[in-house]
Description:
The chain is of the alpha+beta class. The chain has helices at about 20-25, 55-65, 70, 100-105, 125-135, 180-185; strands at about 35-40, 40-45, 75-80, 80-85, 90, 95, 110-115, 140-145, 150-155, 160-165, 170, 175-180. The chain has one domain (about 50-185): tt1808, chain A, CATH 3.90.1570.10.
Amino acid sequence: MPQAETPIEQPKPKRLLSLVEFRRKYSDREDRYKYEFNNGIVEKSPSDMNPKQLFIVKNLNRRFIQTQAFADGGELIPEVEQMTSAVQLRRPDISYWTANKIKNADESISEFAIEIISPTDNYIKVGEKRREYFRAGMKVLWQIIPEEQSVYVYTSPTQVTICEGGTICSAAPVIPDFEIAAEDIFAK
């Protein structure tokens, strides 16, 4: 008599969340993680901004306050929720907000953002997110890699300038006078 096969247990499919559910459960969480929404799926990643990297943010802000964008009421703000599509919500590490976007609590994508890339970031996901940002209307994206002391300045998903040492990183055309040498970003 043939023996009955033991059924193979299938993994349960992930339950998809609505954007409303995501915001209720994850928007105000204060733990060691950053939560983003991607077509019903919660993407959880370590919030890698640590005290050892605060000098990067300090250096960027010290330079930004010298710009006309700052004089006009613009700000560089960390981890603000932004809709990159009807089904995707991201939180860039730092993004540029005009006075008008701040006043209107505008959730559309920032035209300029900065991501600080850590060794735990997935290379494929970093590229997917970069393409997503530009599809949503971003004009300039800086990807800062502290371990390399380099900054990848994207003006489209495929147009990139790699800045190291004295090479100038520019946020033009979004903030034409926001320029800083890569080495000055990493100065302690």
